[in-house]
User: Fold these one by one.
Assistant:
Number 1:
Amino acid sequence: MQSSSLVMFEEEFKLTVNVLEKLLGDSNAKVVFLVDKDGQLIASSGETSDIDTTSLASLTAGNIAATGGLAKLLGEKEFSILFHEGENDNIHISIIGDRVILVVIFDQRSSVGLVRLRVKKASEEINNIIQRMLQRTEKHADKEEALLSEISDEDIDKLFH
C-alpha cells in the first residue's frame, strides 16, 4: 500500500456509496463492501444486518495480505482479484488502486461473470474517486503547510507567554 493516507470528504463518501449501491443492483449481489488495506470498513451497501462488518473488513484485509505473501513466493506483485465459492454464497474480492479492497458477496441470483463485469466498471469509478481524494488531501496539506510557514517563533512565544 502506498504511504500517503486517504482523507475521505463527505462528497467523495457519497459518491463512493452511490457507486457501491449501483454495483449492488447491477450485479444482483447481496452485499458490497469497500475496505482499506488496514482492515477498516469504508462503506457498504446491501444486506449487512446479519454480517459482522468489522470482522469481515479485518479478515478481508488479512486475506489480501496472506495472498500477497503467496504472490511474492510465486514472483508476482500481487493477485488483484480473488474469488471464493461457497455452498450458498460467493465472495469476489478485488484490489483497487493499490489502496482499497472491494468485496462483493453474492449467491445464485448472480454469476461470477456478471460480478466481474460490473466490478470492473465500479473499480474504475472508485479509483477516480480515490484520485480525487488524494488531490484534495494534497491541496489541504499544502494550505496547512503554507499557514504554518507564516507563523514565526515570535508568534509562538507570544501565544504561550
Number 2:
Amino acid sequence: MNRRVVVTGTGVITPVGNDVQTYWKNLLDGVCGIDFIRSIPVDDLPVKIAGEVKDFNPADYGIEPPFARKQDKFTVYAVAAAWQAVRESGLSSAEDGNIDPYRLGVYVGSGIGGFATQVRETEKLINEGAKWVSPLFIPTMISNIAAGNIAIRNNACGPCLPVVTACATSTHAIGEAYRAIKHGYADAIIAGGSEAAIIPVGIAGFANAKALSRSEDPKYASLPFNKNRGGFVMAEGAAMLVLEEYEHAVARGAVIIAEVCGYGNTCDAHHVTAPRPDGQTQAAAIRQALDEAGYKSDDVLYINAHGTGTALNDVAETAAFKIALGDDAYKAHISSTKGSTGHMLGAAGAAEAVASVLALKNGIVPPTANLDEIEPECDLDYTPNNPVTADLTIALSDSLGFGGHNGCVAFRKYVQ
C-alpha cells in the first residue's frame, strides 16, 4: 500500500505559547521565551536560564486535577498538546465517532521521560527508605507513559509506539507514524513528543557536558547560526500532530493543514554527543525525505533547521544542507525557531514540524531570532530576525540527536 498522509490537527505547549495561534504569532514576532529559571532553586547551578512553560493550567485542556497532581510534568504537557491536536482534527473514536479505535494510533516519545519523578523517588529511597517509594513511581517515570495516557484518554487501540532518540525523538515519531499510515497499519495517529527536564540534575548534566549556553542574558542566549553562539538553552514543553490517511480525512470533511510526503532516518555512527562534522550522514536523512517528497529544483523550499546554537551543530548542519541540496541550498528559506523557544529536547522536532506546516499553510517563513552576527561558515539564508513572505511549496523539519540520530520529515502545501 502507498497511501497519502495529511495533517489534520496540531497542538503545542511551549515557552512562547500554550496554543498554536499564540505560538505561531510569537515565532513570527521573534519573541524569546527564555528567561531566568523560576521553577527550581538555581543558586548552585552553573546555568540559571531556560525556556520554561508559562501560565500553564491543565484544566484548560480537559485535564482533571487528580491526574495532573499524580503525573510527571512531561505527561501532563503531552496530554494537553494531544487534546488540542485531536480537537482541531475533529477525530473521535467513541461509539458514534468517525474512526475505528483499532485504526487510531499514538506515536509519542520523550527523550528523557519522567526525570523529576525519578529524582524525587530516588531521594525518598535514600533518605526515608524503600517503603516510602511511591507505587506509582514506575508508571509515572517511564518514557512511554505519555503515549499510554494519550491512548487511554482517546480510546486509541491501534498501534502505539513511543520513540526515544534524544533530540530527534518527535521527528522520528512523526516519520514512523507517517510510514505506518502510508502502508496501511492505521488510519490516523497522534504523533509528537514531550519533555520536562528542567531540574537541577538535568541542568547540571547538560552544563557539565559543555552543551549549554553560559550566557547571563536570557534574551541573548539561544543563538542559532550566530557567530556569538555558545551552546543551546534547555527548554520544555510538548507538541503533537494528528496524521491521517487522505481519503479518510476527506470522507469525514476534515480540514487538511498540509500533506506529509517524505521521511529520512540515518545515524552518524560517529560520537555519542558530537554531530558528524562533514554532514554526510545528516545530509543522507535530508535527501531521503526530499527524494520521497518528489522535490524538484523549482520547488520553493523552507527548512526548519535543528539549529541548536552549538559550535559543532550549526556548521555541520549547514554542510549537510549543501550536500543534500547542492546549489539549491543557497535559495532555500531556512530558519531555526530555537532562537525563540530554546531547545525542547524530545519535543523539539514536533514543535518545529508544527511551525513547518504553518509556514506552508500561511506562506510565511518564521525568523531565526537573535541572528545579528552570522557565523561565516553558516552562509545560507537563515532568515535573520524578521519573517519573510514566500509562496512555499515544500517544507522540511530536521532533527539531530545525541547518539548520532538524524531525522527529517517533509511536508507539502495542500492544495484542494
